[in-house]
């Protein structure tokens, strides 16, 4: 059978030019929403990592201003990731200083550049759709569960402590129980009003008003939440939210203050082997999280654009080198911020860039204003983002696709919920691979009787590619053939038959006569059997 050469995409082809100004009316509000979501997350990850508070914000700025333009994704947003938090905590313990971790971050970025040039990004194409959808649904559930304590005013937990087992000794569900026992009435009131506004803002009835479509609901919520807190201070001072329930951004009054706050790599750690181990760990985990995130973002993209994975690794590599050089945490493409970007109507990478500019501007000029935003209002925004990721319709649609799609999906959801992102994806991937192998085993051959020729004839026709994975199924089928049958083993359509399968067929040749089976073999090579 002639082999057909498959065309591969040319790396010289350029994507059509995009007029970024034409979508600015949608990208600017979306960038604002992403900024409002990203700011507390950047701060929370810094706290959870044991790093300087400024480090997470610097990472968000690098991800927004630099990586957004280097990336081939139009909607992905990069910044510090919760998935790397435990690695940073461990790295600080191993290396002994944040400056050493910065050195490892630079090295991790260089590793990502090597992976990008080596075209290793193709690994992102091997994650089944059911697992990616499960990851999105799980993140939506986690966002909802993790924001309930902040919604109720229990802010002892870090804002993006996304793992089931938390840094403060609680777990996802015990933290919710503790929050219900210590509700802060002011936070709950502001959170409930904010949630009501966001739901109403997205309703069909309200969206008919033209000015509503021009103003993002998150901006309305943030503004009104500050006003509500001021009014609570006048009407019921005991309900007014204090510092611990508000955004906490370091105040920088001048450029010299900013430089004084920065940390820089300690290059003396290049002589220590442990630095390279940390760098390798950061580089590999950050690359996997990025590839998973951009694959998920592509599925959420209304325009169904495809992100070049190798270019994404290169963009992330440059971002981590720069972030490490100026005192930032390691960065990845982050699904939470990217989802907020898509849900807010972002169209191009301009929205991610604007979010980076706003992070920089807030750091330099707006800290006093932003530090008045209640965390419960931001939690309400994330509750809506979480619900849009894990809508009930997603579960029912996966169910209708059958067990091979539903089981990997639901296993991914549950595993991520009770472990973390990468472990959960691995569990889901294992189940997905099981169904792939099962389908491969079942498609190794076509088995049927041929009554038109002889009621005693069985025709087994092998498929085009027969690998060692098919051996068990073929051996089982041959063993179950009744005595006295006429068997036709047909390899006429096969381009490749693995040696293990050929050996199993050769064993059947030897035993067929003993079972009074008349065996006819077509186009299948005989192989020697050891010991015969």
From TrEMBL:
<feature type="transmembrane region" description="Helical">
    <location>
        <begin position="134"/>
        <end position="152"/>
    </location>
</feature>
<keyword id="KW-0472">Membrane</keyword>
<feature type="transmembrane region" description="Helical">
    <location>
        <begin position="104"/>
        <end position="127"/>
    </location>
</feature>
<feature type="transmembrane region" description="Helical">
    <location>
        <begin position="377"/>
        <end position="394"/>
    </location>
</feature>
<dbReference type="InterPro" id="IPR036513">
    <property type="entry name" value="STAS_dom_sf"/>
</dbReference>
<dbReference type="GO" id="GO:0016020">
    <property type="term" value="C:membrane"/>
</dbReference>
<keyword id="KW-0812">Transmembrane</keyword>
<protein>
    <submittedName>
        <fullName>Sulphate transporter</fullName>
    </submittedName>
</protein>
<feature type="transmembrane region" description="Helical">
    <location>
        <begin position="211"/>
        <end position="232"/>
    </location>
</feature>
<dbReference type="InterPro" id="IPR001902">
    <property type="entry name" value="SLC26A/SulP_fam"/>
</dbReference>
<feature type="domain" description="SLC26A/SulP transporter">
    <location>
        <begin position="26"/>
        <end position="406"/>
    </location>
</feature>
<dbReference type="Pfam" id="PF00916">
    <property type="entry name" value="Sulfate_transp"/>
</dbReference>
<dbReference type="InterPro" id="IPR011547">
    <property type="entry name" value="SLC26A/SulP_dom"/>
</dbReference>
<feature type="transmembrane region" description="Helical">
    <location>
        <begin position="406"/>
        <end position="437"/>
    </location>
</feature>
<feature type="transmembrane region" description="Helical">
    <location>
        <begin position="352"/>
        <end position="370"/>
    </location>
</feature>
<feature type="transmembrane region" description="Helical">
    <location>
        <begin position="53"/>
        <end position="70"/>
    </location>
</feature>
<dbReference type="GO" id="GO:0055085">
    <property type="term" value="P:transmembrane transport"/>
</dbReference>
<feature type="transmembrane region" description="Helical">
    <location>
        <begin position="318"/>
        <end position="340"/>
    </location>
</feature>
<feature type="transmembrane region" description="Helical">
    <location>
        <begin position="172"/>
        <end position="199"/>
    </location>
</feature>
<keyword id="KW-1133">Transmembrane helix</keyword>
<feature type="transmembrane region" description="Helical">
    <location>
        <begin position="276"/>
        <end position="297"/>
    </location>
</feature>
<feature type="transmembrane region" description="Helical">
    <location>
        <begin position="28"/>
        <end position="47"/>
    </location>
</feature>
């Amino acid at each position: 059978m002639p082999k057909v050469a498959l065309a591969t995409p040319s790396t010289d082809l350029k994507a059509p030019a995009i007029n970024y100004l034409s979508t600015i009316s949608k990208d600017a509000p979306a960038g604002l929403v992403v900024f409002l979501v990203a700011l507390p997350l950047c701060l929370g990850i810094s706290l959870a990592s044991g790093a300087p508070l400024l480090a997470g914000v610097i990472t968000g700025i690098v991800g927004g201003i630099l990586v957004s333009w280097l990336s081939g994704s139009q909607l992905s947003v990069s910044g510090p990731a919760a998935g790397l938090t435990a690695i940073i905590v461990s790295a600080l313990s191993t290396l002994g200083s944040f400056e050493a971790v910065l050195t490892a971050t630079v090295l991790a970025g260089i590793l990502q550049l090597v992976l990008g040039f080596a075209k290793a990004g193709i690994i992102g194409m091997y994650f089944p759709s059911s697992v990616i959808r499960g990851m999105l649904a799980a993140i939506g559930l986690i966002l909802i569960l993790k924001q309930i304590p902040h919604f109720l005013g229990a802010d002892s937990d870090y804002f993006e402590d996304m793992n089931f087992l938390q840094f403060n000794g609680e777990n996802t569900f015990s933290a919710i129980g503790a929050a219900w026992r210590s509700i802060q009435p002011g936070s709950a009131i502001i959170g409930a009003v904010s949630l009501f506004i966001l739901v109403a803002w997205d309703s069909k009835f309200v969206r008919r008003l033209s000015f509503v479509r021009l103003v993002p609901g998150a901006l309305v919520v943030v503004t009104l939440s500050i006003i509500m807190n001021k009014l609570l201070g006048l009407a019921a001072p005991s309900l007014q939210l204090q510092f611990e329930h508000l955004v906490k951004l370091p105040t920088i009054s001048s450029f010299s203050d900013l430089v004084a706050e920065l940390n820089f790599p300690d290059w003396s750690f290049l002589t220590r082997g442990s630095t390279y181990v940390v760098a390798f760990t950061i580089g590999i985990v950050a690359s996997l999280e990025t590839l998973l995130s951009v694959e998920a973002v592509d599925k959420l993209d209304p325009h169904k654009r495809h992100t070049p994975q190798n270019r994404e690794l290169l963009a992330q590599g440059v971002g981590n080198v720069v972030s490490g050089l100026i005192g930032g945490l390691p960065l990845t493409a982050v699904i939470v911020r990217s989802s907020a970007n898509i849900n807010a109507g972002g169209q191009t990478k301009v929205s991610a860039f604007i979010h980076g500019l706003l992070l920089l501007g807030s750091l330099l000029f707006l800290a006093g204003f932003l530090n008045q935003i209640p965390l419960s209002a931001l939690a309400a925004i994330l509750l809506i983002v979480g619900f849009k990721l894990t809508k009930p319709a997603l579960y029912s649609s996966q169910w209708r696709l059958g067990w091979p799609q539903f089981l990997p999906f639901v296993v991914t959801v549950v595993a991520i919920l009770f472990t973390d992102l990468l472990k959960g994806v691995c569990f889901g991937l294992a189940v997905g691979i099981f169904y792939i192998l099962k389908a491969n085993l079942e498609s190794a051959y076509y088995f049927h009787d041929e009554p038109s020729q002889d009621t005693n004839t069985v025709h087994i026709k092998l498929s085009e590619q027969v690998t060692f994975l098919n051996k068990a199924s073929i051996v089982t089928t041959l063993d179950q053939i009744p005595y006295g049958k006429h068997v036709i083993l047909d390899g006429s359509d096969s381009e490749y038959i693995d040696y293990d399968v050929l050996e199993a067929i050769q064993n059947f040749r030897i035993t067929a006569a003993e079972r009074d089976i008349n065996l006819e073999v077509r186009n299948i090579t005989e192989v020697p059997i050891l010991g015969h």
